[in-house]
Amino acid sequence: MAKAQQQGMTLLEVMVALVIFSTAALALMNSVSLNVRFTYGLADTLQASWVAENQLAEAQLTQSDFPDAEEEGSETQGGRSWTWHKQRVKSAEHGEINRIQVWAEGDDSQPVITLSVVPPGEKK
């Protein structure tokens, strides 16, 4: 009598394959999730930098100095409202600098971006 050959996989082999697959799937999902969060944060930073650069360009076009007392305003960029704060502040390294901070609407915990620029004519 000939012995029948076994076909297919045993239960243990299936379980090991499922553990390996689920571990790889979880690692991939975590990587994709981090990538999405990073991309979203990058879009916020880019739009906030545009708001800061708009304030800097406006000051240069009107040839006006930044105020010594903090000035605040808001702007819409990318379908979202942004609050900016601009001020001329003292710096140990550069004398006085123009500082613009941009905050996302509804998030007062920290600015999305802070842009500091040495005005023309200041020591560098």
TrEMBL record:
Keywords: Cell inner membrane, Cell membrane, Membrane, Methylation, Transmembrane, Transmembrane helix. The keyword Cell membrane applies. It is a single-pass membrane protein. It is found in: Cell inner membrane. GO terms for biological process: protein secretion by the type II secretion system. It comes from the Bacteria. SUPFAM superfamilies: Pili subunits. Gene3D superfamilies: GSPII I/J protein-like (3.30.1300.30). Residues 64-84 are annotated as: Disordered. Pfam families: N_methyl, T2SSI. Residues 42-117 form the Type II secretion system protein GspI C-terminal domain. One of its GO terms (cellular component) is plasma membrane. Cleaved by prepilin peptidase. InterPro entries: N_methyl_site, Pilin-like, T2SS_GspI_C, T2SS_protein-GspI. The chain crosses the membrane at residues 12-29. Belongs to the GSP I family. Type II secretion is composed of four main components: the outer membrane complex, the inner membrane complex, the cytoplasmic secretion ATPase and the periplasm-spanning pseudopilus. NCBIfam families: gspI, IV_pilin_GFxxxE. PANTHER family: TYPE II SECRETION SYSTEM PROTEIN I-RELATED (PTHR38779). Component of the type II secretion system required for the energy-dependent secretion of extracellular factors such as proteases and toxins from the periplasm. Part of the pseudopilus tip complex that is critical for the recognition and binding of secretion substrates. This is Type II secretion system protein I. The gene is gspI.
